[in-house]
Amino acid sequence: MQLFLFVAVVIMVVFGLITFQNPDVTVTMKFINWTFEQKPLALMLAIPFAIGIIAGTFICVPPWLKKASLARHQKKRIHELEAEITELVVQEETEVEEVEEVKEKGEAIIEDVKQDV
Q1: Which of 26, 49, 78, 79 could be a cystine partner for 38, CB 3.0 to 4.6 Å?
Q2: E strand or H helix at 85, and its extent?
Q3: Cα dihedral 92, 95, 101, 104 sign
Q4: Is residue 117 situated within a structural domain?
Q5: Which residue, among 7, 5, 45, has the nearest Cα to 25 in the 3D structure?
Q6: Number of domains observed in the structure of the chain
Q7: pLDDT tens, the chain, 117 aa long
């Protein structure tokens, strides 16, 4: 991200220098059937650059959105699994307590039987 910002600032400085150093330079540009006559050089450089940025954005944004959606889904799944783990731990503790109670009752019964014999 910092590299991107640095490159953007450098490009803006270059466009600014071109604009201020060549205010009266005009160019004629032909593109397919269109002709742009006597337009400022900075404008003729900025327009294709802006078109490139827009095209790059349209190319890069869908994968970013897909990754963001996947990350949200994974976070949701993590929370679900953590809740399930908590529930299973509580269930295990309850079952261990029940087993301990049954064990104590069994030992008490064995002691009673030993005393009766």
Answers
A1: 26
A2: helix 41-116
A3: negative
A4: no
A5: 45
A6: 1
A7: 578 778 888 888 887 887 778 778 788 888 888 888 888 877 787 888 888 888 988 888 888 899 999 999 999 999 999 999 999 999 999 999 999 999 988 888 888 888 877
Cα atoms in the 13 Å half-sphere on the side-chain side of 99? 6
Token duo for residue 78: 């993590």
Q: 45 is in which domain, residue-wise?
A: 2-111
Q: What length does the chain have?
A: 117
Q: Is 57 helix (H, G, I), strand (E, B) or coil?
A: helix
**Is residue 116 in a domain?**
no
Nearest one of 38, 48, 58, 63 to 15, comparing CA atoms: 48
The tokens for 7 are 């490159």
pTM: 0.50
**Cα gap 97→46, rounded to integer Å:** 74
Q: Is there a domain that residue 54 lies in?
A: yes
- Rounded Cα distance between 22 and 12, Å, is 15
